[in-house]
Amino acid sequence: MLYTISFWFVLFMLYSFIGYVAEIIAVSIIQKRVVLNRGFLIGPYLPIYGVGCMIMVLFLRRYENDLLALFIMSAFYCSVLEYFTSLIMEKIFKLRWWDYSNNKFNINGRICLKNAVLFGIGGIIVVKVLHPFFSWLVYLPPSSVTICVAIVLFVIFLADVVESCYITARLKINFTKYTHRDATEKIKKEVAIALRKHILLTSRLLKAFPNATSVANKGFQDFSKRFYHIKQELYLQKKKMKEAKKRK
Predict the structure, then answer these.
(1) Residue 221 lies in a domain
(2) How many angstroms separate the CA atoms of 131 and 41, rounded?
(3) Which of 12, 25, 65, 112 minimizes the number of CB atoms within 10 Å of its CB?
(4) Is there a single domain that holds both residue 26 and residue 129?
């Protein structure tokens, strides 16, 4: 039982990592620049891809000899997953993490036809090519090794989820309560606190979701502007200190 759970969790992490790599490649091509920060979590993995692949290999393998059915079912299930992931994250954090409103044939900006087609193609690749290889690869080591690897990955993953959720929830609490322009100084102080405590993750989240929009108000956008403003101020102060040292 423990080995079976460990086996599937390692596969889940592998697919999450592959999804992360595929995402940064696709976004880098679209934006014509290298984009390394993707996703909500700190680590190089996107759980939504891991869950999507698990759905494919656990529930859609019966269609592996019918490519059209596999394509349609993969596109459907993964689109449903993406839609409800967007909805749940928006309800929790009051932020829209991605928006396909500018894409043709979209539903509430949460999913779009282009992604559905890619999900369908991805389903064929995962079920026919990737899963047979990765399941064989994970099966190779002794069961004790697989279990140890799974435990280590789970601890890292869980710590990442808790920390990322905590920081993002704090940002929501700190900034959505300031709805007036005259609260600028208060917001700036909150940003400074967030910078001192969580500068790396805060910066990474902003880079990962540059188009994130606040559902409640524009607090998140204001935070983004002030974050970069303060970051620039800190850089200039550091530069001045170095120049002062050189003069001495």
Answers:
(1) yes
(2) 24
(3) 65
(4) yes
pLDDT, tens only, 210-240: 655 555 445 555 555 655 666 666 667 667 6
- The confidence band for 73, taking pLDDT boundaries of 50, 70 and 90, is very high
Does residue 179 sit within a domain? yes
Number of structural domains the chain divides into: 2
Is residue 33 assigned to a domain?
A: yes
Whether 94 and 29 share a structural domain: yes
* Tens digit of each residue's pLDDT (9 = 90 or more) over 109-126: 889 999 999 999 999 999
- Among the three residues 113, 135, 154, which one is the final residue of a domain in this structure? 154
In a domain, 242, yes or no: no
pTM of structure? 0.70
In the chain, the amino acid numbered 130 is L
Q: Which of 154, 175, 204 is the last residue of a domain?
A: 154
Among 140, 119, 149, CA closest to 56: 119
